[in-house]
Every structure is written in C-alpha cells, then in structure tokens.
C-alpha cells in the first residue's frame, strides 16, 4: 500500500524541502504537556508527530493519539518498537526493519505478527530501513533490540546498509543515534547515506541545539526528529521550526 504520506515525503525531498518531526514518547508525556505541545505546533511548522519509544511503560499511547487527533491536523506516525504498539487511530506507521542489526525478530519477526492487523487497519504503511548508530553510550533501543549499532565513525557501513535496504524495497531510511544520544549521527555518515540512496532520509537522536540541526540538514537529512530537547524545553520547538523554515526558504528549487 503506497501512500499519500510517502508521496508527500518524496515530493518534499525532490524539492529539497526539509521537515521537522517531533517525537512524542507516551511514557514522558501527560495530557497537559501534550496540550502545550499541540498549541506550539499550531504556531510553528511541525510536519509530523512520531509516537513511540523503546519501552512503553504506560497505557497512555491510545489516549494520547486520540487527544492529538481531536486537537491537531499534524499527522501522527507510529514509531513502534513492538507489534504490540499498533494503533489504528494514527495516520500511518513507520514500519521499521532494523537493518543495522542482525536480530531476525526486528528484521521480519514482529512484522509477521503485525501483518494481518496492519492489513485490516487504515494505517498508511511507510516501510523504513531503521539504522541505529553508536553515539557514545548504549541506548535503550540497542539494548532492547539486542543489536549492535553501526559504528559512529564508519560511514561506509551505513551507506552500504542503506543501499541494501533500498534495494530490498524500503521506502525511507532512518539514521538514529537513539533518544538522548550523547552526540548526534555524524555529518559524514549522513552525507554517505544521502549519496548512497534516493529515498527520503530521517535523522534523529541527540539533536539538542540549533547548530546540530543545521549540520544534519546541510549534510542531507530530509526530516529531523527532536524528542528529548523539546520535552526539556518546549520553546526549542519554535527555534527548530524557524531553522527548518529558513533552510527551506533558501533551498526551495521551485522558487529558483
Ligand atoms: C530517537 O530520533 C529520536 O529515536 C529522537 O531522539 O530524543 O535524542 O531527540 P532525541
């Protein structure tokens, strides 16, 4: 099922337009926090909410998605770590295959369990090559998935991994340093993956300053994902949105 969400991402990529995604972790967000974030997102250019986390300790996800869908037009994309985290109220799902790892459960196993449910759902499916990158400390994602992340200083491995993912038919790539990474994915690795594949490239993990966001965008990220820093300081969302918009005004090929 190819999707309008996918078409939008591809069109934006073709025009050199960047997008901002905000990661909402149901374990760290209550309804008040969510209300505040939605108000800010209305004022600033947020293209996507990603919903998920490596561990979902609470049962708040369904209520949060319901709340967002009734208060905001920003699409909600599930960012699941397990087939248990499906929810038909969202707009779409980043159907992650953890191609940086060698754990069959996260390459195909969970997908087999989820497949009949996804088939019955209205979720738009975005097949995504998910690459965890070592960024200074073991992240929850790498521990829970039981996989070794890509070495930070080996852009060539990341490029070949992305190439293989694209050849297998994955339609997006996601380079992730993991939530709260000590430092973000290197610009050299983003550049190498950008040059290796044509599909839209999502980059996240440890982007907690404007400079780090600009570096990722300049290196070739199409979508940047911010989680922790917005939880700590919601006003960061306004700064990030301005950064992405400024980038887009200077690179919109349709304006040149
Ligand atoms: C993690 O890419 C996301 O999966 C976001 O990371 O929380 O560090 O911004 P942060």
Task: Please supply descriptive tags for the structure shown above.
phospholipid biosynthesis; single chain; Geranylgeranylglyceryl phosphate synthase; eight-stranded parallel β-barrel; GGGP/HepGP_synthase_I; 256 residues; lipid metabolism; TIM Barrel; alpha/beta; globular; transferase; binds SN-glycerol-1-phosphate
Instruction: List bound small molecules.
Output: SN-glycerol-1-phosphate
What's the total helix number? 10
Quick one: how many beta strands? 8
The CATH architecture: Alpha-Beta Barrel
Percent helix range: 40-55%
CATH class category label: Alpha Beta
Largest sheet: 8 strands, parallel, barrel
Mean pLDDT: 93
Oligomer: single chain
Class based on secondary structure composition and strand pairing = alpha/beta
Would you identify the CATH H-level superfamily? FMN-linked oxidoreductases
Beta content comes to 15-25%
Overall geometry comes to globular
What gap, in angstroms, lies between the N and C termini? Answer: 34 Å
In the sheet with the most strands, the strands line up as 1-2-3-4-5-6-7-8
Q: Are there runs of 5+ residues with pLDDT below 50, and where?
A: none
Radius of gyration: 17 Å
CATH topology: TIM Barrel
SSE order in H/E notation?
HEHEHEEHEHHEHEHEHH
Q: How many distinct domains? A: 1
Cofactor: Mg(2+)
GO molecular function: heptaprenylglyceryl phosphate synthase activity; magnesium ion binding; phosphoglycerol geranylgeranyltransferase activity
GO biological process, one term: glycerophospholipid biosynthetic process
Pfam family, one: PcrB
């Amino acid at each position: 099922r190819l999707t309008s969400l996918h078409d939008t991402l591809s069109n934006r990529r073709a025009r050199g337009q960047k997008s901002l995604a905000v990661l909402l972790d149901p374990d760290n967000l209550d309804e008040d926090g969510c209300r505040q974030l939605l108000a800010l997102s209305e004022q600033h250019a947020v293209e996507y909410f990603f919903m998920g986390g490596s561990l979902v300790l609470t049962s708040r996800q369904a209520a949060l998605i319901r709340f967002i869908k009734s208060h905001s037009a920003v699409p909600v994309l599930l960012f699941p770590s397990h087939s248990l985290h499906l929810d038909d109220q969202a707009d779409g799902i980043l159907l992650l295959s953890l191609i940086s790892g060698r754990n069959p459960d996260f390459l195909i196993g969970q997908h087999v369990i989820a497949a009949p449910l996804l088939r019955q759902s209205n979720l738009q499916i975005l097949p995504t090559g998910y690459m965890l990158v070592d960024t200074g400390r073991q992240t929850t994602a790498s521990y829970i998935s039981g996989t070794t992340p890509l070495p930070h200083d080996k852009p060539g491995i990341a490029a070949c991994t992305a190439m293989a993912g694209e050849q297998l038919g994955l339609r997006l790539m996601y380079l992730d340093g993991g939530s709260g990474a000590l430092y973000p994915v290197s610009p050299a690795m983003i550049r190498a993956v950008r040059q290796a594949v044509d599909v839209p490239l999502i980059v996240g993990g440890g982007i907690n300053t404007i400079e780090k966001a600009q570096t990722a965008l300049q290196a070739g990220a199409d979508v940047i994902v911010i989680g922790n820093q917005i939880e700590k300081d919601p006003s960061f969302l306004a700064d990030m949105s301005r950064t992405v918009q400024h980038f887009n005004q200077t690179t919109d090929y349709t304006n040149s």
